[in-house]
């Protein structure tokens, strides 16, 4: 079973950038599609981006299109989320998740990391 650990969160000003990483243990990482989700206080968890097993197919939420980019390095068992032009409304706990399908639905993912906090100040 793959385990996921996120890193890279922090406090950044509006317009700044952060790169989140999701490191996976286990040698079966390439069998999983990986997604990023986020949850702000008092709000439901929402989809951010997803990437197929070898990075050929990617999906982004409309709210982050053109600002965020998901990528993966299977040699390092790591998925990244490059976040540019950050806005206060991007403030949330960001989670990576792994699952069989490429999906924007959190119920389709069965392995989750512990999350990393991203705070964007205005």
Overview in brief:
The chain has 122 residues and is mostly beta strands. The protein has strands at residues 4-7, 10-13, 18-24, 33-39, 46-51, 58-60, 68-73, 78-83, 92-99, 111-112, 116-121.
Tell me the series of helices and strands, N- to C-terminal.
Answer: EEEEEEEEEEE
Instruction: Tell me the Rg in angstroms.
Output: 13 Å
Which percent range fits the helix content? under 10%
General form: globular
Quaternary status: single chain
Helix run count = 0
Tell me the total number of β-strands.
11
Stretches where pLDDT is under 50 for at least 5 consecutive residues are: none
Structural class: mainly beta
Mean pLDDT: 94
Terminal Cα span: 40 Å
Can you walk through the features of this model?
The protein is an all-beta fold and 122 residues long. The chain has strands spanning 4-7, 10-13, 18-24, 33-39, 46-51, 58-60, 68-73, 78-83, 92-99, 111-112, 116-121. Strands 2, 4, 5, 6, 9, 10 and 11 form a seven-stranded mixed sheet that branches. Strands 1-3-8-7 form a four-stranded antiparallel sheet, with no helix packed on it. β7 (68-73) and β8 form a beta hairpin. The protein is globular and about 40 Å long. The mean pLDDT is 94.
Annotate the secondary structure layout.
Blueprint: E1 4-7, E2 10-13, E3 18-24, E4 33-39, E5 46-51, E6 58-60, E7 68-73, E8 78-83, E9 92-99, E10 111-112, E11 116-121
Parallel strand pairs: 2-11
Antiparallel strand pairs: 1-3, 3-8, 4-5, 4-9, 5-6, 7-8, 9-10, 9-11
What are the main properties of this structure?
7-stranded mixed sheet; about 120 residues; mainly beta; 11 strands; 4-stranded antiparallel sheet
